[in-house]
Amino acid sequence: MLHLYNTLTRKKDIFSPVETGKVKMYVCGPTVYDYFHIGNARSFINADFIHRYFRYLGLDVKFIMNLTDVDDKIIKKSNEEKVAYSVVAEKYSWAFFEDIGKLKIYPATMYPTATSHMQEIIDMIAELIKKGFAYNNEGNVFYDISKFNGYGKLSGKKIEELEAGSRVEVNEEKKGPLDFALWKKAKEGEPFWESPWGNGRPGWHIECSAMSCKHLGETFDIHAGGSDLIFPHHENEIAQSEAASGKPFANYWLHFGFLNIDSEKMSKSLGNFFTTRDILKKFSAETLRFFYAQTHYASPLNFTADALEAADSGRLKIDNLYFKLEEIVKDEDCDDSLFASNYASFEEAMDDDINTPKAMAVVFDAVRDINRQIAENKASAAYLASAKKFIRRTAGDVLAVLGEAKKEAGLESQLIELLIQLRLEAKKEKNYALSDKIRDRLKEIGVILEDSKDKTSYKLN
Prior knowledge:
Blueprint: E1 3-6, E2 11-14, E3 22-27, H1 38-56, E4 60-65, H2 72-81, H3 85-102, H4 118-130, E5 134-137, E6 140-143, H5 159-164, E7 180-185, E8 200-202, H6 204-216, E9 220-226, H7 230-245, E10 250-256, E11 259-261, E12 264-265, H8 276-280, H9 285-293, E13 301-303, H10 305-328, H11 340-351, H12 356-375, H13 381-398, H14 406-428, H15 432-444, E14 447-451, E15 456-460
Helix pairs in contact: 2-3, 4-6, 4-7, 6-7, 9-10, 10-13, 11-12, 12-13, 14-15
């Protein structure tokens, strides 16, 4: 039975979807003004682990990820590059799709944009004004948080404390310092849309409320995003959506932990800011996914080059076995009961709030056992077929950490054989220090050398 840690209830809740057998899930996507960084990538990949596991369970998933395609940052970039805001948004939208494709992220059902949902946004704002939750001040429309009794229930923040310690700049147009913009009056040189309150554009928070309710309904199952979005973005979404509909918004709120770079918060000012494109020039998407899977989605994660190198070595152990099985197994028919306990352990890990580190441990235990069965010549054809399917369904379909090119495995074998030959030559020359060093370094990356009288063979640990 699947349990998810719900930020709203502050505990692990049994997952019970609104409709049996179906999941409706909304994830906050990017603001398309630049290439997304590896912190964004972690959120997207963690959402993908959840999405893929739902599909593994046989659930019908409606997965929505929005694209914010009009925003202050986009307008700023358009002014810097002296092009229309839409040119910037289109350029980085396509870059986003290209990069998530490289990351092996399963496509969402839909990627709605703010500019294509202006009518829904305007209608929701009009409903909030009608019900007394919002007010218009000469073309700027604000949400009055004092009118919503549940404000702060997601973040646990209290209005009184927020106002007392607020650093919000004084804005005489607003009734309260924490009231937030639903509609922004048009400024000279900026894009705008017509509305009952004059020309302008929407605030950031209202976009997600309008799009999620449009495509998933007024009450849906899961809303997810980075931990930095809990307040104010997700808090404001709840206030808007529930005030407009009079119904609960999302039943489960999932939040992804921060990514630090060498134990420091990632930021452009510190010079430790990496785009996903930067990392994918040096490491495979499978390695990045493997690295993220080693830490629970809600926990903070420290990103270092050494950690990625270690993840790359660890992942190759799964690849090497799978490629070996691909060469051995010709018949895809198999008996899943041979790996029933492995599947049960994998599902138990994932059912515990999508615990990918435990799930990875289950896969590695299986890899070790399968390699041992092969080495000892105890593996039947049925066992090998079942083993291949287990690795494919877990490491491949759910975690998506399996490589795709058999050439890599073949090249690796050739390199290992070359090192073995160099070691033999070192031994002949009585250079035992070098010989031992080659043996020990190979062992560190999971290659165990076995010396016999006539030759040296190896096995993967």
